[in-house]
């Protein structure tokens, strides 16, 4: 009877012990992931706050009081069921953006008037990407300057000018003109032929940056080329019953220069689709498989590769009645990520931004050498030592 009870107790301990270890593993996994995610969120915000206040040697702010920061940290989640606690490695990611209140309404300057008429590319918005705290970060601009020359007829009865459409597409604070893009509304007694006005405009274009958004740029192209869509989006700003109403029909019928990324290619597509062709990497019967399409997004790609390396050694030593075993394990997990961006921003000559179609740089796919990937390695050495004495 006693032997059967002991056997039952051992069986119950084996069954319920395994369940307890599994539950412990779930709790440890959940707790660590939540803690790592919270720590990454706090760190990303602090780093963005520090970048927004960064100054140069002349004690001048270099980031225009704003910063956007993305932090990716690969963390080890131990497995309690493993004698060495070797588990899995997963990313803890967070992003933060900071704009200081005193600089809330400021934009990068490249004006036609005033003492300083030079472009200031250092004031352009940028995003910073950092993988692991100890590794260097990557900084990319999310917009660029562009200068254009426009021509239109001086019609005193016109309700809008091309400059109004530029402001509708790019935003009021992102457009400057040389002062000549104004329609002369002076009445004349004798009819004369409309005068052709030639002027220059400078814009901050978020689709000229090193990292751009496909959806935002696609919408911007439609605003420029599709009058009906432009009028529909313009009317969203008109509040019913308000005295200030924009004449969206007159604004959207104005002609403006089509930027290079909105122009059609010989295949009937727009250049923007060619820029994001890296998302069309999966084909079935020579056609793009939509179900396998990668996200049209620049920056650090969601898909990544992990390479695990484990070295285990066991040493056993006997001296008389004493047996000593030393079990060592050395493991490492390396994650390779691709980072995609437009390689066309010239820091030395910002006037050339957007003149030519940019070259898409894809870290990790431009060369078969895996060192082009952005590697992040997590690992440790674990030693278990056991000493037994024979009786």
- Oligomerization state of this entry? single chain
**Count of beta strands:** 13
- Profile the largest sheet: 4 strands, mixed
Structurally, the number of domains stands at 3
Work out the radius of gyration.
31 Å
Which percent range fits the helix content? Answer: 10-25%
Strand order of the largest sheet: 2-1-3-4
Q: Could you give the order of the helices and strands?
A: HEEEEEHEEHHHHEEEEEE
Q: Which residues form runs of ≥5 with pLDDT under 50? A: 346-372
Structural class estimated from helices and strands = alpha+beta
**Mean of all residue-level pLDDT scores:** 76
Molecular shape: elongated
- What is the tally of helical segments? 6
Compute the separation of the termini in Å: 30 Å
Strand percentage lies at 25-35%
Description:
The chain is built from six helices and 13 strands. By secondary structure, it is of the alpha+beta class. It has a four-stranded mixed sheet with strand order 2-1-3-4, covered by helices on one side. Strands 10, 11, 12 and 13 form a four-stranded antiparallel sheet that branches. The longest helix has 51 residues.
């Amino acid at each position: 009877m006693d032997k059967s009870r002991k056997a039952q107790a051992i069986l119950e301990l084996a069954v319920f012990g395994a369940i307890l270890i599994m539950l412990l593993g779930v709790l440890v996994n959940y707790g660590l992931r939540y803690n790592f995610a919270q720590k990454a969120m706090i760190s990303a915000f602090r780093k963005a706050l520090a970048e927004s206040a960064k100054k140069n040697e002349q004690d001048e702010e270099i980031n225009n009081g704003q910063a956007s920061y993305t932090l990716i940290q690969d963390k080890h989640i131990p497995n309690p069921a493993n004698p060495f606690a070797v588990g899995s490695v997963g990313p803890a990611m967070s992003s933060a953006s900071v704009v200081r209140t005193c600089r809330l309404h400021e934009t990068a300057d490249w004006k036609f008037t005033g003492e300083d008429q030079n472009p200031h590319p250092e004031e352009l918005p940028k995003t910073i990407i950092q993988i692991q705290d100890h590794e260097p970060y990557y900084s990319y601009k999310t917009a660029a300057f562009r200068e254009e020359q426009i021509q239109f007829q001086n019609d005193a009865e016109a309700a809008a000018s091309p400059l109004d459409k530029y402001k509708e597409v790019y935003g009021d604070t992102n457009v400057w003109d040389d002062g000549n893009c104004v329609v002369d509304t002076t009445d004349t007694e004798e009819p004369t032929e409309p005068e052709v006005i030639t002027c220059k405009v400078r814009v901050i274009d978020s689709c000229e940056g090193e990292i751009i958004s496909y959806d935002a740029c696609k919408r911007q192209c439609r605003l420029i080329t599709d009058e009906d869509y432009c009028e529909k989006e313009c009317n969203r700003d008109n509040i019913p019953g308000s005295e200030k109403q924009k004449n969206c029909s007159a604004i959207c019928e104005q002609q403006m220069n089509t930027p290079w990324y909105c122009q059609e290619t010989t295949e009937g597509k727009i250049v923007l689709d060619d820029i994001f062709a890296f998302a069309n990497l999966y084909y079935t019967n020579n056609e793009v498989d939509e179900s396998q399409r990668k996200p049209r997004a620049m920056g650090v790609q969601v898909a990544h590769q992990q390479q695990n390396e484990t070295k285990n050694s066991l040493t056993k030593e006997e001296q008389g009645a004493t047996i000593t075993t030393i079990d060592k394990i050395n493991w490492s997990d390396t994650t390779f990520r691709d980072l995609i961006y437009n390689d066309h921003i010239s820091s030395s000559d910002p006037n050339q931004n957007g003149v030519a179609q940019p070259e898409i740089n894809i870290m990790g796919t431009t060369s078969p050498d895996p060192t082009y990937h952005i590697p992040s390695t997590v690992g440790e050495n674990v030693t278990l030592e056991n000493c037994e004495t024979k009786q």
